[in-house]
């Protein structure tokens, strides 16, 4: 890269990072860290385990935000020094090293820039994701299983912990539905752009005539509830049924009636959990899912009230992405036009490009 090109790139990165720092406000975050550290140091902190968990989790998340932006600033400053010295000495190897670091730094700054766009009320929350097979029979069930693996692989790539609460297997192949939690800060804000109907076009492996099949699967993303949400669910509003867990392979959980299904009578919402061996654990997990759905229902009601005041409604369409495996290979987001010709990589969890473009698209749509 020429000297002038390095100078332009470094100046551009500095402007973007300065804008990010203005939004994140590291000084404000450091003040919050000081306050949280005083709470963590309190001798009676763990008298209230739930509050202790909230405080320690928030401290970890805020410190990570500070470390992320300060690390990028330090790397940018070091890169400027490296480029200057390499150019003065005509050191080609150092210039090549600087070029590599520049591209890595550009990617890291872009990712952090997208993170600053997550400013919704529930965006910092963990995410509760449900995938359901829709039209397309056995192909749709298989597609739903492919999406489940895709999101779990995406979380694994980022080092995010996940927990599968419930999986309903289809008779021939794939799944009817699955619900899992992504336990990471901003998981909801990040994955919420994945909500909608996904479409798969391929030669069906389940069709003995080798015909092309179009199938659909739905993705629902909800914020995980917190103690501060105060969602009270009277026992009288619940019908709780227990049943024997089911799944391939004769799991040990299949030997007792440990699975739990909860019906919220006022809304008709039904949730279930069969992942744990204990009926009490399954009930607690199912209640968490129910609370998340009631929280999302309340958010949608507020949003509907706001949309009723506008001339146009919500701009989100139902069908949001197509995965085409035949007669050509392409995955394309129908809202952002972002696409790739590597569906295998996408199904292996490489979906950051789709997520980032979706977050930018949503932010732009909100301004219209």
From TrEMBL:
PTM comment text: Methylated by PrmC. Methylation increases the termination efficiency of RF2.
Keyword Thylakoid attached: no
Record-annotated membrane-spanning stretches: none
Subcellular compartments: Cytoplasm
Prokaryotic-type class I peptide chain release factors domain: residues covered: 244-260
Signal peptide (from-to): none
UniProt keyword Protein biosynthesis present: yes
Keywords: Cytoplasm, Methylation, Protein biosynthesis
Alphabetized SUPFAM superfamilies for the sequence: Release factor
Functional summary from the UniProt entry: Peptide chain release factor 2 directs the termination of translation in response to the peptide chain termination codons UGA and UAA.
Annotated family: Belongs to the prokaryotic/mitochondrial release factor family.
Identification of the protein by name: Peptide chain release factor 2
Organism: Microlunatus ginsengisoli
């Amino acid at each position: 890269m020429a000297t002038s090109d390095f100078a332009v790139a470094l100046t551009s990165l500095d402007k973007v990072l300065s804008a990010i720092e203005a939004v994140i406000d590291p000084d404000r975050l450091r003040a919050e860290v000081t306050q949280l550290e005083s709470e963590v140091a309190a001798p009676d902190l763990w008298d209230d385990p739930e509050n202790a968990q909230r405080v320690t989790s928030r401290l970890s998340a805020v410190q990570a935000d500070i470390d992320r932006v300060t690390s990028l600033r330090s790397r940018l400053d070091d890169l400027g020094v490296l480029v200057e010295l390499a150019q003065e000495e005509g050191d080609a190897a150092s210039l090549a090293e600087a070029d590599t670091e520049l591209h890595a730094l550009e990617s890291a700054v872009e990712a952090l820039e997208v993170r600053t766009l997550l400013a919704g009320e529930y965006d910092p929350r963990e995410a509760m994701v449900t995938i359901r097979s829709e039209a397309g029979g056995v192909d749709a069930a298989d597609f739903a299983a492919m999406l489940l693996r895709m999101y779990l692989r995406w979380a694994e790539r980022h080092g995010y912990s996940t927990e599968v609460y419930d999986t309903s297997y289809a008779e021939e192949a794939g799944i009817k539905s699955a619900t899992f939690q992504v336990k990471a800060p901003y998981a909801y804000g990040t994955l919420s752009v994945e909500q909608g109907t996904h479409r798969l076009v391929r030669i069906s492996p389940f069709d003995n005539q080798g015909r092309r099949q179009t199938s659909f699967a739905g993705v629902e993303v909800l914020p995980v509830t917190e103690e501060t949400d105060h969602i009270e669910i009277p026992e009288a509003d619940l019908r709780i049924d227990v049943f024997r867990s089911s799944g391939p392979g004769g799991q040990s959980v299949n030997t007792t009636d440990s699975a739990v299904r909860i019906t919220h009578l006022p809304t008709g919402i039904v949730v279930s959990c069969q992942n744990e061996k204990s009926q009490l654990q399954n009930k607690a997990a199912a209640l968490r899912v129910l609370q998340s759905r009631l929280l999302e229902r309340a958010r949608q009601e507020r949003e509907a009230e706001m949309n009723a005041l506008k001339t146009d409604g919500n701009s989100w369409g139902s069908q949001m992405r197509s995965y085409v495996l035949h007669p050509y290979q392409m995955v394309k987001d129908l809202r952002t036009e972002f696409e790739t010709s590597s569906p295998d990589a996408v199904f292996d969890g490489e979906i950051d490009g789709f997520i980032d473009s979706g977050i930018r698209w949503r932010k732009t749509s909100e301004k219209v």
